[in-house]
Amino acid sequence: MKIIKSLLLIGSVTLMLTSCGGGAEILSTPIENIDSIPLKEADLTENEKHTWGHLDLVKDTIPGMSVDKAYTEVLKGKSGQTIIVAVIDSGIDIDHEDLDGVIWTNKKEIAGNNKDDDNNGYVDDIHGWNFLGDAYNEQLEKTRLLAAGKGGAEAQADYDSDFQKYSGYKTQYEQIYQSLIAADEAISKHLNNKNYTPKDVNSIETTDEELTRHIAIIKQIYGFGFDNTADAKNDLGDALESINDMLNYNLNKEFNGRTTGDNPDDLNDKPGYGNGNVKPVKKSESHGTHVAGIIAAERNNGKGANGVANNVKIMSLRAVPNGDEYDKDIALAIRYAVDNGAKIINGSFGKYFSPHSDWVRDAIAYAGENDVLFINAAGNEGIDLDSKAVYPNDQVANGPEVSNTFVTVGALEPKYGSGMVAGFSNYGKINVDVFAPGAKVYSTTPENEYDTKGGTSMAAPAVAGVAALIRSYYPKLSAAQVKQILMDSGLPVATKVVVGGNSSDVRPFEGLSKSGKMVNAYNALIMAQQLSN
């Protein structure tokens, strides 16, 4: 990882921070003399790739959240309370080896008796609720609106743009995929070795024009960062699957994936629809499992990943399909989480059209009124949310907020300096609160596997994990106080950064969010301790 030393000047070793009506002086991660520290020029090690979000800026020269430092220096010898964190997402593999010990169980419900034992409106909701039933694929919201004749010019223009773009992607990726397969077969045959290496390819000497073209294709694949063709074929195959899903389901006006039998435009229709099976319906439905692992994968058990927080139980609320979520499902999932004991909700989802956004905002307000923190992913289009609304949100047109416990999170890359903001990350001085590790994050995936994913979807659960630590070890603090701590205790960054992945758009990092900071668990826990005294 290359880091430009001149971009590492941040400010004072101590921060004067004010929150919750009182002042608190806390020791920050010491960064005023970071220029004198030998900086790493090499790429991240495998261990650093898997743990970078937990590392420390000074010690590791990586913009993590100082989670490991927090456990070692702040939480050592302390015990905390169990905190329920609701994950509104796709299904979660609750049997995963790194999650099975941190899954919430509704002790008031008797499994498998087909009764609503706790009278909460949901039958056999043992580990949460599945608002999608057996559904997996869904339309985008703009597709649903246009199919119903309600979309308007903006939705139509957006739809047409996407349809043209993904139709082009399909042709392009299919050509690349077929070229790769042909080149791989040709090189394997020439070398008589299916497991050839870049060194083997570079050693080929030939005057055969066709083989030369195949060699050029394989070398281009290596240039994209792959060191073998199997990984490249897998990635291209996954990309093609996503493109086909977009065209066959997400943008298909004739498709209807709803299986629950309710009217999604009537908030009160068929209460308790769905079922208690919160698991993914297929292995590739991995998003929710990945998010849950970032928050609470069992720590230090010798298995694949460590979550940010201990003392957590994950409540699984399956409400996000392979497409856009329904406002009804999200509104009811938020209320379910609040009514069943969650103190934090993680929402790693979002869309740009929302016909019933008021239902969701009312639910967000309900969470705030009941001392529940909602951690929200900013979105992945590299745009300014102060100029374009994304849903869910807690305000209309940058107006008054309906809740003071709603936190929107942008994503960081594992490299400090001008490239530290993920190119895909949305931002906004009004509508984004903080930034946190979100690119290239390693976590749990279904069937006891692990993978690296990127998105503000990964940044939000990192912050949810820090919030869970605060609420666990300092339970007297309100959700509103925890939000303010997350914002006030973060590390300020004085450097300018590339915004939206556009190298010609360079701005001060502090202008990309309300706090101008990146979340730091070490600082947050020190501030929480001081405010709890």
What does this protein structure show overall?
It is a single chain. The protein has 533 residues and is of the alpha/beta class. It has two domains: 5-138 and 257-532, Peptidase S8/S53 domain (Rossmann fold, 3-Layer(aba) Sandwich), CATH 3.40.50; 152-250, no CATH class. Helices cover 34% and strands 14% of the residues. The chain contains 14 helices and 15 strands. The strands form five sheets. Strands 4-5-3-6-7-8-9 form a seven-stranded parallel beta sheet, sandwiched between helices. A two-stranded antiparallel ribbon has the order 1-2. A two-stranded antiparallel sheet has the order 10-11. Helix 5 packs across helix 7 (209-223). It is globular and about 75 Å long. The model is unreliable at 1-27 and 30-39 (pLDDT under 50). It holds the Pfam family Peptidase_S8. InterPro entries: Pept_S8_subtilisin_bacteroid, Peptidase_S8/S53_dom, Peptidase_S8/S53_dom_sf, Peptidase_S8/S53_subtilisin, Peptidase_S8_Asp-AS, Peptidase_S8_His-AS, Peptidase_S8_Ser-AS, Peptidase_S8_subtilisin-rel. Residues 80-489 form the Peptidase S8/S53 domain.
Residue stretches low in confidence (pLDDT < 50, at least 5 long) are 1-27, 30-39
Helix-strand makeup class: alpha/beta
Q: Please name the CATH architecture of the largest domain.
A: 3-Layer(aba) Sandwich
- First-to-last CA distance: 41 Å
